[in-house]
Amino acid sequence: MLYYFLYQWIFREFGQPSESVLFRGLNVFQYVTFRTAMATVTALLISLLFGGKVIRKIRSLNVGQEIREELSAEHQAKKGTPTMGGILILGAVFISTVLWARLDSVFLWLALGATMCFGAVGFADDYIKIVKKRSLGLTGKQKLAGQLLTAVAVWAVLYFFTNYSWNLSIPFFKATAEANPMLGVTYVGPIIYLIFIIFVLLGSSNAVNLTDGMDGLATSITFVAMSALTALTYVASDKRWAEYLDLTHNPSSAELTIFCGAMVGASLGFLWFNAPPAEVFMGDVGSLAIGGALGTVAILTKQEFLLPFIGGIFIIEAVSVMLQVSFFKFTRRTGGVGKRIFLQAPLHHHFQLAGWKEPKIVFRFLIVAILFALLSLSTLKLR
């Protein structure tokens, strides 16, 4: 909490606030908008300053990306590229958030804790797969168990340590943002909401993980999605904006804006090294953490139903995998031969096999991601 220590130092050195021009000028540090901007810049600078060192350290440990044999020659050329670079994102987010946020917010620590826990699951998967040279890493059940435990922990903190409202805030329906949700039709209670939280967190974390398959793809979309979520988090935490836009107002989520800003800066800084041709990949430690962060902030700010808009590309990528697997199993069971909807899933590989070059896929997906983000922001005035 950097601004707190600045306050204390200036107070000791220059006396009472009313007597010190410098002290009064420091009031800008109280504003969430200013601290969010500073957290974004701090995370960006940390990523840029330490990115090269992190990459060299990863390369010295021979932590290189393994590429599946069925992927294209374009992908095969990336074999051995340093991975697990998501550690840089997590470090930049944590440091900048702690520097610029007030640390008395349960919601802030919950978002940081959930992000780090999802990152720990991804780290274990990367470590076993790449360092220990076990090609599959964690088994599907082990990875799912880690994600599930994190989701349950998020719910437990909300249940025991906050006054979280267990209602579903649905866009376009003003009544769902009632201050007393138990009077509304969308109050579902904490037990049913647990299932909802598990669905959101596991879905968002795995969706980002599936999207992370091309240079700069997941990182650039994260930048766009987190930028939109930063704006949504701010208006939901501000009473005037929340009342005007018929949002569920939660002042406890104000410091989450700093966390979201830090994620924006960290993803932008990581993109410097992850842009084509990538010098480093984020790995599961980065993708699972980013997805967990998106889902957690959406839950804390009651924006769960906006996630398909905020992270539309992530959802499309995940749905493409589910459709591909389901259709293949169905046709194999009914006709004896499994058939495919796409040339390959996730969807970005389908376009690659269709002849699109990787940079074109990334930029076109990014354009669509921007459209989704703008759509999510437009819903604010359509309620």
Could you give a quick summary of the protein structure above?
The protein has 383 residues and is mainly α.
Describe this structure in words.
With 383 residues, the protein is mainly alpha-helical. The chain has two domains: 30 residues, no CATH class; 340 residues, no CATH class. The chain contains 16 helices and no strands.
CA-atom Rg in angstroms: 22 Å
SSE sequence, one letter per element: HHHHHHHHHHHHHHHH
- How many domains? 2
Largest sheet: none
Quote the beta fraction: under 5%
Can you give keywords for this protein?
mainly alpha, 2 domains
Write the layout of secondary structure elements.
Layout lengths: L1 H13 L6 H5 L6 H29 L12 H4 L9 H15 L5 H26 L8 H22 L27 H23 L5 H21 L1 H7 L10 H19 L8 H18 L6 H4 L1 H24 L11 H7 L4 H21 L5
Helix pairs in contact: 3-5, 3-11, 5-6, 5-11, 5-12, 6-7, 6-12, 7-8, 8-12, 8-14, 9-11, 9-12, 9-16
